[in-house]
Amino acid sequence: MWILFATIYALLIGFYTVLRKKASQKTNLLFVLAVSSSIGFLLVSWSAAEAVTLSWQYILFIFGKSIIVSQAWVFELIALKNYYISSLQPISAIKVVIAFIANMLIFNEQVVWWKFIGVVIIFAGLITLNQYDRKTLKNANNFNLNKIDLNKNIVKFENIGNENVYIEKSNKVSENVIVETDMQTLKKRRIKAIIFFIFSCIFNETSGILDKIILNHVSTNQMQFWFMLFVAIIIWIYFFVLCAKKRKMQVQKSDWKNYLMYIIPFILIIADRFLFTALSQPNVLVTGVSIIKQLSTIVAVIFGGLLYKEPNLKYKLIYLAIILVGIIIVLV
């Protein structure tokens, strides 16, 4: 049954990733995370009676996990707001490498030589995808560069993370210089997105390793209750610190009408319930769960790529297929 539970989790998380990016496009990402995590906590608050019986040592473990996940969510959304989801999601394959190392060191998994070949294939796929993406970025036509209202000296870039980027045009320089300069800005956004996404992957996989350890001593109800409570508190602290730093409340009345904020917590709670149930079963294979979780990457790349009409999606799927071959070899 754990295979079925892990599969359902992966499919739901794939859609969750794309919809959460959509929710944070026009609303402050910390506000989106704070509201959605608060709703998530309310959805599991019925298990409070069971949760409060948990010893404080394990509550501290869950608190530590919550800090890691909160930071991972923030890093991930920053990355997705700055670049294509279909280019970033394959990077999540590094989670498999982290799990591979952790399984050797923590869970005493037997090491065989072909797993190292799988790791090499994963990195080869990521490197070639990165090179292809860099070449694509050099072609300004891929970004649908449009000039609008030159009387107001504005240039508009479309189709970057499904956002419109408006840049002021100086009358003192030529149009070609403007395009070149702004393409450099877009390249910097790409590098920033990749760095943040890698950190997100590292934090998320660290959380996944902690899940297996904690769930040997904690019930699914206790895990979800304390996890969602701590995450909601942490994200709200982040949000109010940002508001204090900016000296302005980073939310508008229209942001409360962002209906996706109220939908994604249901997806997350249901998905996590399936994952925690799978990991809590005595016959579960941690490596098996790791490979099944990569299905979320496929869902996010295809669904996100189509939803945001991202360029060269079919070629990115080829590189993703190469990466998945390496993942299968590592986790067989």
Main traits of this protein?
single chain, 332 residues, mainly alpha, three-stranded antiparallel sheet, 13 helices, 3 strands
Integer count of domains: 1
Number of DSSP strands?
Answer: 3
Hey, roughly how much beta strand do the residues contain?
5-15%
Shape: globular
Structural class, from helix and strand content? Answer: mainly alpha
Share in helix? over 70%
| Average of per-residue pLDDT values | 80
Strand order of the largest sheet: 1-2-3
Order of helices and strands: HHHHHHHEEEHHHHHH
Q: For the CA atoms, what is the radius of gyration?
A: 21 Å
Stretches where pLDDT is under 50 for at least 5 consecutive residues are 140-180
Counting DSSP H or I runs of 4 or more residues, the number of helices is 13
The biggest sheet, with number of strands, parallel, antiparallel or mixed sense and barrel status, is:
3 strands, antiparallel
* Terminal CA distance: 19 Å
SSE map:
Layout: H1 2-23, H2 29-44, H3 48-51, H4 56-82, H5 85-88, H6 94-105, H7 113-138, E1 145-148, E2 154-160, E3 163-168, H8 175-214, H9 220-246, H10 260-280, H11 286-293, H12 295-307, H13 313-331
Helix pairs in contact: 1-10, 1-11, 1-12, 2-9, 2-10, 4-8, 4-9, 6-8, 6-11, 7-13, 9-10
Structure report:
The chain is built from 13 helices and three strands, in the order αααααααβββαααααα. It is mainly alpha-helical and 332 residues long. The protein has one domain (2-139, 188-331). The protein has a three-stranded antiparallel β-sheet with strand order 1-2-3, with no helix packed on it. The two termini are 19 Å apart. Residues 140-180 have low confidence and may be disordered.
